[in-house]
Amino acid sequence: MSFRKHRENTEDWRMWIRLHRERLERCGVPEEAFRTKLDWAIFLDHGYVQPKDQRLDDWWRIGWLQSEEALNLRDFLAEEYGDAYAELMERLKQIADRGAA
């Protein structure tokens, strides 16, 4: 039963990625952020990508997004998750506002 449940979760994740990959890439999100469901959860909770082969200083962060990318990502996350990631949404708003100033 455990294997079956894992397989279903993996297939659901692959479907989600097929539906959203292009939009995530247009938002400036690197593939490492959504390679697995766990990577995506870490990204949503912390706003960075944690590759195993890079130093902490080299990890991709949402602060690297351009203003328009941050705004687009914020819109996407609001559509997908509503208010579930309020802290990340606020940080994206600040990035977008910084570029608009």
Report on this model:
The protein is mainly α and 101 residues long. It has one domain (2-100). Helix content is 64%, strand content 0%. The protein is built from four helices and no strands. Helix 3 (67-81) runs antiparallel to helix 4 (86-100). The longest helix has 25 residues, at 2-26.
Q: How far do the termini sit from each other?
A: 54 Å
For the sheet with most strands, the description reads: none
- Written as H for each helix and E for each strand, in order along the chain, the element string is HHHH
In quaternary terms, these chains amount to single chain
> What structural category characterises the helix and strand content?
mainly alpha
What tags apply to this protein structure?
single chain; 4 helices; 101 residues; mainly alpha
Give the secondary structure arrangement, pairings included:
Blueprint: H1 2-26, H2 37-46, H3 67-81, H4 86-100
Helix pairs in contact: 3-4
Summarize, please.
By secondary structure, the chain is mostly helical. It has helices spanning 2-26, 37-46, 67-81, 86-100.
